[in-house]
Amino acid sequence: MNRDAFRAGVRDALPLLLGIVPFGLVSGVAAVDAGFSLAQAMGLSVFVFAGASQLAALSLVQEGAPALVVVATAVVINLRMGMYSASLAPHFREYTTRWKAAMAYVLTDQAYALSVARYRGGDVDKRPYYLGVALTLWVVWQAATVVGLVVGGGVPESWGLSFTVPLVFLALLVPAVEDRATGVAAAVGAVAGTLGAVYLPLHLGLLAGGLCGVAAGLLVDNPDETDDAGDETAAGGETAGEPPRDADATEEVSE
Question: Are residues 197 and 128 in the same domain?
Answer without folding.
Answer: no
